[in-house]
Amino acid sequence: MHIARELLIRIFAGAAVLWAAASLAFAILQLFPSDPVQVIYGADSSVTPELRAAIRADFGLDRPVWEQYQHFLARIVQGDLGTSYQQRRSVISIIGSELGSTLTLASLSVLLAIVMACLASLVTSGRRTWLRKALSSIELLSVSTPAFWIGILLLTFFSFKWQLFPVVADEGWRSLVLPVATLALAVFGSLSQVMREEMDLALEQPFILTARTRGLSEWAVRWRHALGHTLIPCITISTETFGGLLAGSIITEQVFGRPGLGRITLEAINNHDIPVVMGIVLLVAFVFVTLNIVADLLYRLADPRLRVSAA
Amino acid sequence: MTDLTPNLADPARMRAGSVFFMRLRRVPFGVALAATVLVFLALCAVAPGIVAPKDPYKISLLHTLRPPSLEFPFGTDQLGRDIFSRVVHGASYSLTIGLGATFIAVTIGLAVGLVAGSAGGAVDLAFMRVIDVLLAFPALFMSMAVVALLGTGSVNVLIAIAIAEIPRYARIVRSQVLVVRTSGYVEAARILGQRRWRTLMRHVLPNTIGPLIVLSTLGIGSAILSSAALSYLGLGPKPPTPEWGLMLAEGQGYLRRAWWIGVFPGMFATLTVISTTVLGRYLKALSDGRA
Q1: Which residue of B has its CA nearest to A159?
Q2: A17 to chain B nearest CA, in Å?
């Protein structure tokens, strides 16, 4: 029952954040009004005032601000994010058609990064070896390198020079390898740093000594006893970076010419198609809020101590 | 066995200069290297003509896509422009945006955090909820949204990156203010009847600003990464500006024939960010008393 109650509270809190984000977006749009007529017709001066008024009425821009706000919220609750100025399609359908590709890319990358970081901390934590030094250099490189540059390097060498992977985006799983590697490398650094530090701490705990005196092999100590303690920061960072990964995939998709949220976001920004930009902003906020709730549940799975204290 | 006698130098023989060099010798090699790189980049930004005398804008169709050589250390691009020259001239854009955006973000974040932290109550609650909402958006994504509203260009990119970083600094300042506020000397100042505003300026501000400067050194790196990314996406300066991200975007179609177009601008961007990160981490370790 406790979990259900807490979950309910979390969902309400999340909904409040989303409402605030939507209201903020609405307020900002009032400060920087964008004119759909301008977006659709450009600087075409032959647009008659009647047509202009009709288009503005079509988007509900002729009504009082308060009424627009109510309408705006009511639509969002129904899952309607408005209509694109440029494409005259609903924002939801524009996002929906591209979301799958981006989600695939982002989730595969985060998975790969987690696996790599787990391996790295299993092998190197608590030891002072050349491997550890090499790894911390890689981590520093990973957090300091522009993600798109990693992509460009991979593309230059693996696709153009050695022709191991296809350049174009639609050749099945083989065209996913380089984009996923690019994003995973970008996330790997921060993930690995924190997990290794956490595992270093865990390896100094008394229960590790107990495990060792029971005659467990070094590998079993690390795999069965120490790794679990790195999972909490791993979950935290993964959820934090997943939102960033959505932004990162915009860039990676651009490098590899993949379809996805990146393409529609850039198009919308360049065309001042504000409803689409706002729709994507709200989507990102929604993903962030949802992931935080999921992370809270995962914490309980990963750490039995949290279940006890909550009961 | 370790030698327990402290290694004291004869004070009479010590001069200011030698003290400086003794301190300098204790700086780790990596940090010294990072500082050297940053000094070089600052030189590139302030006086690019000295480092790279060639004109970064000069198109020469006789010299297109030349590989690196003595004449063109980093090769030439699709229009025959000297990439070394362009990369050196590009330093000023990245450093200006990195430093400028961080400065604006830190200043506004400091003001917001000070007000929220010292006012407490409803003001604090309201400020922090807004910041929580803003933090729900990834920094790069928020910059893109701001550019969508303001329009593209270098100045707007700078503003966009600054806006995206404000919530982070505000939150750090506020938590630092909360720590300082409950400390003995602030208590003492209050008991002595010092005005609230004066306490804030004399005691809270100086003790908040130290950790903030250290953290902002790390922030410069991420601001530079964001600016390169936004330029790469075509939201920053327009061609033919020699901006690193933009150079990569422009040269991407020629990677098959000329790897050097893709390698060198990115290498400079990475070097810059690594150096600020290494320096920032060192400063942080110093201020935490770990180095």
Answers
A1: B256
A2: 6
B12-48 pLDDT, tens digit per residue, is 555 555 666 666 667 888 899 999 999 999 999 888 8
Cβ-Cβ contacts under 8 Å, A265 against chain B: 144
Q: Give A198's Cβ-side CA count (13 Å radius).
A: 22
| B226: closest chain A residue by CA | A146
Q: Which of B141, B147, B270 sits opposite A247 (nearest CB)?
A: B141
Position B290 scores a pLDDT of: 62
Helices within chain B (DSSP H only): 16-26, 29-46, 48-51, 83-119, 121-135, 139-150, 154-181, 184-191, 196-199, 205-232, 244-251, 259-287
CA atoms B232, B38, A186, B96: torsion sign: negative
Tokens, residue B29? 């090699």
Chain length of chain A: 311
Q: In angstroms, what separates the C-alpha of A123 from chain B's closest C-alpha?
A: 24
Q: How far apart are CA A181 and CA A176, in angstroms?
A: 8
For A33, the closest chain B residue by CA position comes to: B149
CA distances from A218 to A131, A195, A209, B246 (A): 17, 18, 11, 49
Cβ of A149 within 8 Å of Cβ of B270? The answer is yes
What is the token pair recorded at A253? 């998709």
ipTM of the complex: 0.81
Mutate to test the interface with B, among A34, A38, A133, A148 (most CBs of B within 10 A): A148
Comparing CA positions, the residue from A82, A58, A67 lying closest to residue A283 is: A82
- The CA distance from B168 to A219, in Å, is 39
Please answer yes or no on whether A161 and B136 come within 8 Å at the CB atom: no
Closest Cα to residue A230, out of A188, A187, A201? A201
What is d(CA B106, CA B210) in angstroms, rounded to the nearest whole number? Answer: 12
Chosen for mutation from A35, A102, A140, A156 (greatest number of chain B CBs closer than 10 Å) is A156
CA–CA distance, B280 with B220 (Å, rounded to integer): 9
The pTM score is 0.83
Mapped onto helix, strand or coil, the DSSP state of residue A189 is helix
C-beta atoms of B140 and A272 within 8 A: no
